[in-house]
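Sequence in, structure out. Go.
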Amino acid sequence: MKEKNTFKIGEYTFTSFHEYRDGKEDLKKISIIQEKLDIQDPEVAVRIYRDIRDGRLSFKTDIGNDFARHISDIVAEKSKGLIADREVVEEADKRTGYTRWIGIGLTCAAAALFVYFGGQQYLNWQRTKQAEELRAQKAAAISEGSLSAADEDAAASIVTGGGTKFTQPERDPFAMSTVTDPNAATILPEYETLYERNHDLVGWLTIPDTEIDYPVVQTTDNEYYLKRNFDGASDSNGTLFADYRCGILNASTNTIIYGHNMNSGQMFGSLSDYYEDPAYYSAHRTVNFNTIYEKRTYEIVAVCLSDVKYQDSDDYRYYNFINATNETEWDAFVENVRSTTMYPEDLDLSPGDEVLTLSTCDHYKDNGRLFLVAKRIT
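Output:
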């Protein structure tokens, strides 16, 4: 398997995401044991050894297996001169009550986790409520009847009063001429109220039949919405935002939208499903990114794993590709996508394509990044 498809935890390398996830679980078990117990204590080591031997404590990967061997080595070292392991265990049973303390420790840990996750559930409920409110506000604007269905479809493709429609460049795909005067652009009726609520609104991103259905904002600072919700209040979920360098009305070659990879599945938390499950990828390749001026549809052509590069590195940075002014810049971008995508057979990009990139963090490696590349089709 290619190196780009490997997953690392320290010195351990896994060839599938499922093995990587099992490794994380093993590491979590070991961390709890080491936090609560002194494994160098021979009596504790014997107790853990016995639990592993009898199947009460098990591991799924080499991370756990190496820990089990380490415990076995401690028992062997501390038990020199004793006749048999059974005698070691029996002696430990007589001299220690660590089983009870382990139970107490795990109970306390469970209680703490219950409180923590309870708080997280409440915060997730609040965030879900706000997302539903924003969606309802958009839906209400549509249902007010300011446009007929036919008029709405017509307006969806209009970005100026003259009725300019989306077309791929015919002659020079790298021409950087301005197409639309911002003063002539008209905001779609469904976004007028939301725009009044927050002037940073630039569009709405939806992937049908997924959790992704959120407003997209843009400001001059790519860090502003990392920990702020749509209304600017503190929120670790943040808000989906477009890179400040990207053109929205006059689309840049590549429009990059960032979002957090939340464990709750909110924001871009479900994007990892695209490389974990090929069937999910096949069923969810359509992306709707409607700007506040027009409706746009994209098709996902690549699901890529990368990372944040060191400042002194000459490696390609996908997150710095905004506009291709010549064929060399375009080819460098496409080659990077080809070398990092999980589905190279589906890559279909040509000079002049308008590209949408959805970018989020991913813990398959340190400073890992997951990004989806889609090309505009309508």
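Check: The two ends are 36 Å apart (CA to CA). The chain has two domains: 3-96, 147-376.
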